[in-house]
C-alpha cells in the first residue's frame, strides 16, 4: 500500500491508496478534478467515510474512502474512474477551485513584500496555470489565505510582540522597546529605538523630524517615525512606533518614550507638519525644544487658502532666505498680491518656518520630507502584519548602516563627501570675489556690487549662511584663500568624517528564526491581543489623500486606437480620422500643396 503525505502530487487516484488525513485527500482529489475538467459533489462525509460522485447524476464516476484500521489515515476503497457526463456540466468556473486551493498556488508570490501581487494577477495566473476562471471575490480571499499561510495570521503577530522585543533587545544591546496595552490586554502602543540609533544620535545635528503615516494591514493603525540628518546629509533613523490612531495620547506617549530613550539635548529643534496633536505633545514633553513647521505643508495650506499666481515661488524664497532684508522683501511682494497672506503667515509665527528668524539652528532641514521618505521606503511592508513590518524596518535600517559605514571608511576627506561637494561648488564663485583684509581674521568681500563682512574667528558672515548652516559660504572661502589656510578647519564638527564614522559605528543584528528564540516563561505567558479595528466600508485605503494643490501625472488614453499619451483628437494611428486631428490637417495641407504645385488645367 502506498501512503500519500501532505504536499505530494499524483496523476490520478487508485484503490488501496492511503492518505494521512482527510484534508490531504480532498486537496489531491480537487487538483485531479481540476486538471481533468471534472466536477464532483460530496453526498457523504463524516469521521469514518468520505464519498464523492460526479455532479451529473447519470455519470458513473464514483469514489469511496474509509478510515484505515482505527487510525487517522484514510484508505481509498472504491474508485470507479469512468466519466460519461454531459458537456453541459463543463463550465470555466470550476466548483473545486476554492479560494483555499488557489492559495496553495500563489504562496510563493507573496514572500517578498517589495513585490506587489494584485488580485487581478491572481485571476490571470489561475486562468493560465489551471485553466479556471475565478471571480474577483474568490481571488481576493485566496490571496488573503495565502498571505496568512506565508506571513502568519495578522492577529497572531501581536501575541508574538513581547517575545520579538525581548530577542531584539538581547541581540542589540542598548535598544529600547516599550509596549502598552489596555485593561483587556489589547495592543495600544509600541515604541522601538535601536541601540545603534541611540548612540549614533549623539553625532547628528540637533534637529529631529517626526511624522506619522497610516498602516494598510488588517488591523490598521499609525506608524510614528522620528529621524534626523547625519553629517553627510543622509536620513538617520532614530526611533519608530505603532499606535491605534494619530491623537494627543498617542503622540504624547511616543514623545515620552523617545525622551526616555535618547534623553534631552540643548538647542534641540523638532520639525513636523501642523498636526495639532504633535504640537500639544511637544509642548508637554519637550518644552525646552523649539517646534518648527514643515515648509512644504505650510505652502500647501497657504496656496489652498489663497489661489494667487506666483505665491508658490515667493513663499519658498521668503522661507529659505538667510538675511532678514531678503525676507522682508519677499513678504512685501506677497502682501502686494493679497494683504491677508502676510497676516496669515505672521499669525502662524515666522520664527517657526522662516530660516532667518528661526531662534535656533535648523540647518537645511526645513521640511519633514526625510520622515516621509522612511514611510515611503517601507511602503509595501505597511501592508504586512506588525511583526513583518518591524522586521522589514530593521532590514532597511540595517542596510543603511552597512552602506554608510562603508562610505565613511572609503572617504579620505577630513569632512563628509556632501560637505566637501558643498564647498567645492562654491569655490568657483569665491575665486571671482574681491577680498579686503581688515584684521587677522576679518574681511570685506565684494561681489556683484555687494559687500559682505566675514569674521573667521566667530565663524560668521553677513550673508548668514556661514552662521546658520555652520558650513563655509563662498565669501568665507574667499577670505580663507586670502590667508592660504585649511578650509576644512572652519566647518562644524557635525560634518567631520570622524563624527560621521561614529554615527554608523555599530550594526543592527537580526532576531533570527522563531524556533531559535530563547524566551523566559514570564514573557511567553504574557497575553497581548490585537486591537479592535472596525474597517470602513469599501475597499481598504492604500494611498493617502492628496491635497488639491498637489500635482500628479494623468495618463491619457485614446478612444480610437486605445494607446496612451494622446486623445481622439490628436490620434495619428486610427484609420478613422477625427475632422480636427493633426493627421487630418496634415493630409489636407499636403493635398492643397500638391494642388497648388500642379500645372493649371485649361
What is this structure's SSE topology?
Elements: E1 3-4, E2 18-19, H1 22-35, E3 40-45, E4 49-54, E5 62-67, E6 74-80, H2 99-106, H3 119-129, H4 136-151, H5 154-159, H6 161-171, E7 176-181, E8 187-193, H7 195-200, E9 207-214, E10 222-229, E11 235-243, H8 248-262, E12 269-272, H9 276-285, E13 290-293, H10 295-305, H11 311-320, H12 324-337, H13 339-348, H14 369-377, H15 386-409, H16 417-431, E14 434-437, E15 442-447, E16 450-455, E17 460-461, H17 465-469, H18 474-483, H19 497-503, H20 521-524, H21 582-597
Parallel strand pairs: 1-2, 9-12, 12-13
Antiparallel strand pairs: 2-6, 3-4, 4-5, 5-6, 7-8, 8-11, 9-10, 10-11, 14-15, 15-16, 16-17
Helix pairs in contact: 2-4, 3-4, 8-9, 11-12, 12-13, 15-19, 16-18
Amino acid at each position: 500500500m502506498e501512503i500519500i503525505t501532505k504536499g505530494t502530487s499524483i496523476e490520478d487516484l487508485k484503490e488501496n491508496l492511503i492518505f494521512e488525513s482527510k484534508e490531504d485527500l480532498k486537496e489531491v482529489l480537487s487538483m485531479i478534478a481540476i486538471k481533468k475538467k471534472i466536477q464532483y459533489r460530496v453526498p457523504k462525509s463524516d469521521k469514518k467515510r468520505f464519498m464523492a460522485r460526479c455532479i451529473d447524476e447519470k455519470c458513473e464516476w464514483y469514489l469511496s474512502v474509509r478510515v484505515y484500521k482505527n487510525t487517522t489515515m484514510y484508505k481509498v476503497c472504491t474508485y470507479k474512474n469512468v466519466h460519461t457526463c454531459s458537456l453541459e456540466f463543463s463550465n470555466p468556473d470550476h466548483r473545486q477551485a476554492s479560494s483555499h486551493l488557489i492559495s496553495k498556488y500563489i504562496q510563493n508570490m507573496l514572500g517578498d513584500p517589495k513585490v506587489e501581487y494584485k488580485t487581478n494577477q491572481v485571476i490571470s495566473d489561475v486562468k493560465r496555470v489551471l485553466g479556471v476562471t475565478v471571480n474577483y471575490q474568490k481571488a481576493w480571499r485566496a490571496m488573503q489565505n495565502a498571505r496568512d499561510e506565508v506571513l502568519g495570521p495578522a492577529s497572531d503577530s501581536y501575541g508574538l510582540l513581547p517575545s520579538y522585543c525581548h530577542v531584539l533587545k538581547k541581540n542589540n544591546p542598548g535598544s529600547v522597546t516599550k509596549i502598552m496595552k489596555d485593561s483587556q490586554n489589547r495592543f495600544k502602543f509600541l515604541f522601538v529605538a535601536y541601540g545603534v540609533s541611540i548612540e549614533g544620535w549623539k553625532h547628528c545635528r540637533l534637529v529631529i523630524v517626526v511624522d506619522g503615516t497610516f498602516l494598510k494591514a488588517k488591523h490598521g493603525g499609525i506608524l510614528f517615525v522620528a529621524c534626523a540628518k547625519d553629517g553627510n546629509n543622509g536620513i538617520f533613523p532614530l526611533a519608530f512606533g505603532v499606535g491605534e490612531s494619530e491623537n494627543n495620547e498617542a503622540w504624547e506617549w511616543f514623545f515620552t518614550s523617545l525622551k526616555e530613550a535618547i534623553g534631552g539635548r540643548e538647542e534641540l529643534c523638532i520639525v513636523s507638519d501642523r498636526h495639532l496633536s504633535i504640537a500639544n505633545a511637544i509642548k508637554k514633553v519637550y518644552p525646552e525644544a523649539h517646534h518648527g513647521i514643515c515648509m512644504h505643508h505650510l505652502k500647501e495650506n497657504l496656496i489652498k487658502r489663497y489661489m494667487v499666481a506666483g505665491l508658490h515661488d515667493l513663499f519658498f524664497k521668503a522661507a529659505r532666505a538667510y538675511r532678514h532684508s531678503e525676507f522682508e522683501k519677499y513678504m512685501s511682494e506677497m502682501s502686494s498680491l493679497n494683504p491677508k497672506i502676510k497676516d496669515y503667515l505672521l499669525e502662524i509665527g515666522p520664527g517657526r518656518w522662516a530660516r532667518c528668524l528661526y531662534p535656533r539652528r535648523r540647518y537645511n532641514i526645513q521640511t519633514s520630507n526625510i520622515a516621509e521618505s522612511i514611510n515611503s521606503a517601507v511602503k509595501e511592508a505597511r501592508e504586512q502584519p506588525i511583526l513583518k513590518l518591524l522586521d522589514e524596518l530593521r532590514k532597511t535600517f540595517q542596510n543603511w548602516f552597512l552602506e554608510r559605514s562603508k562610505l565613511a571608511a572609503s572617504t579620505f576627506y577630513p569632512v563628509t563627501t556632501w560637505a566637501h561637494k558643498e564647498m567645492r561648488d562654491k569655490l568657483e564663485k569665491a575665486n571671482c570675489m574681491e577680498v579686503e583684509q581688515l584684521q587677522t581674521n576679518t574681511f570685506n568681500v565684494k561681489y556683484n556690487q555687494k559687500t559682505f563682512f566675514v569674521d573667521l574667528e566667530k565663524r560668521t558672515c553677513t550673508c548668514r549662511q556661514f552662521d546658520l548652516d555652520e558650513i563655509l559660504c563662498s565669501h568665507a572661502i574667499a577670505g580663507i584663500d586670502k590667508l592660504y589656510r585649511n578650509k576644512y578647519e572652519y566647518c562644524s564638527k557635525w560634518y567631520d568624517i570622524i563624527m560621521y564614522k561614529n554615527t554608523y559605528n555599530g550594526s543592527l543584528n537580526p532576531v533570527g528564526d522563531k524556533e531559535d528564540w530563547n524566551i523566559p516563561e514570564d514573557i511567553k505567558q504574557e497575553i497581548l491581543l490585537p486591537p479592535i479595528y472596525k474597517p470602513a466600508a469599501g475597499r481598504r485605503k492604500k494611498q493617502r489623500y492628496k491635497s488639491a494643490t498637489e500635482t500628479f501625472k494623468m495618463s491619457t488614453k485614446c478612444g480610437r486606437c486605445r494607446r496612451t499619451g494622446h486623445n481622439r483628437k490628436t490620434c495619428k494611428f486610427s484609420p478613422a480620422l477625427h475632422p480636427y486631428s493633426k493627421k487630418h490637417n496634415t493630409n489636407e495641407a499636403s493635398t492643397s500643396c500638391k494642388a497648388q504645385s500642379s500645372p493649371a488645367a485649361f
